[in-house]
Amino acid sequence: MVEKTVLLSNFGKLKNFVAEMNTLDFDVSAVSGGKTVNAKTIEELFALDLTRPITVIADTTAVGAFTKIVKPFEID
Asked: Where in the sequence is the domain holding 29, given as residue range(s)?
């Protein structure tokens, strides 16, 4: 399992994020405000407060692949 924090504060970033997550062959969840949703589904991501950072959790041991894909959306 790998966790990263991202910010998807505009629709373009959100759309690109979902497209990138859908290239992965493992489950990815997004967590914010006590809610957990599928990070590969734009409709579910709209249930979160997208003005705040979101924790993205990948169910994989392929840390490098996930880290590379999520890097453009990641915040420190």
From this structure: 2-73
* CA atoms in the 13 A half-sphere facing the CB of 31: 11
Number of domains making up the chain:
1
Token pair in block for residue 19: 């497209």
Question: What pLDDT, in 10s, does the model give residues 18-75?
Answer: 999 999 999 999 999 999 999 999 999 999 999 999 999 999 998 998 999 999 999 9
pTM, 2 dp: 0.91
Torsion of CA 47, 34, 66, 17, to 10 degrees: 20
β-partners of residue 5 are 55
Whichever domain contains 67, its CATH number is 3.30.1340.10
The Cα 10–Cα 53 span in angstroms is 12
DSSP-derived letter for residue 71 is G
